[in-house]
Amino acid sequence: MTDFELKSKHRAMWASGSYATVAADVVAPLGPVLVEAAGIGPGQRVLDVAAGTGNAALPAAHTGAEVTASDLSPELLRIGEQRADAKLIWTEADAEALPFQDAEFDTVISCIGVMFAPHHERAAAELLRVCRPGGTIALANWTPEGFIGQMFATLKPFAAPPPPGATPPPRWGDPAHVATLFGDRAVAVRAERRDLRVDHFGTAEAFVDYFKRNYGPTIAVYRNIAAEPERVAALDAALTALAQRFDVGGGAMNWEYLLWTGRRAH
């Protein structure tokens, strides 16, 4: 698979279902948390990488910052632009080859977005390149051990083989892996594991139905096994069991993520 084919596949995956629904119903609280951790304020030049529909870009713009929201999927950007209640720039862009100048931004953020770029080293290098020396990089990414990391582990046996050289997305939630990606090019690093409380679904079965309808990566895996009813049933059961395992009462779950901040070294 060529790089163009891979990116086209990713674009189509995120355009399937309704990630905008997931962003609004479930993960919206992460954006303001990331903006606060990054210390974003008036007049700062901010880039949100893999911004989706703007869960972090919009709260950043509300602070008075000059925000550019970039994403591989133009469909998600259009939804964000239509819903925006603040002024910002929406730009189609590949996280592994950002169309911006060196040191163009004071702050570079990504909220559960850059983790899905398949080549982590390339994406990390781009985050650093477009951030000015001394500027802030701030990331929120699902951990391998948390619910979404375990969901991807559950999906893996049913999914098509990953492309050569691709790294699993939840590795971005491993502080040791992120330290390897940035090395001594990032200083004043802080890495904190936090939980997002999710009480939208009520039951494990409702979670499975919701993610089968709305979440691109889950939709892609079910399409891969659509002609195999027994495997579909097995995946339904595995995801239901996973949601039940993470239930902390009343159908609520805690989804762990890594909140990481650092400054680009001079």
Automatic annotation (TrEMBL):
Ranges of residues in domain Methyltransferase type: 47-138
Pfam families, A to Z: Methyltransf_11
Protein name: Methyltransferase type 11 domain-containing protein
Origin species: Actinoplanes ianthinogenes
Native organism taxonomy: Bacteria, Bacillati, Actinomycetota, Actinomycetes, Micromonosporales
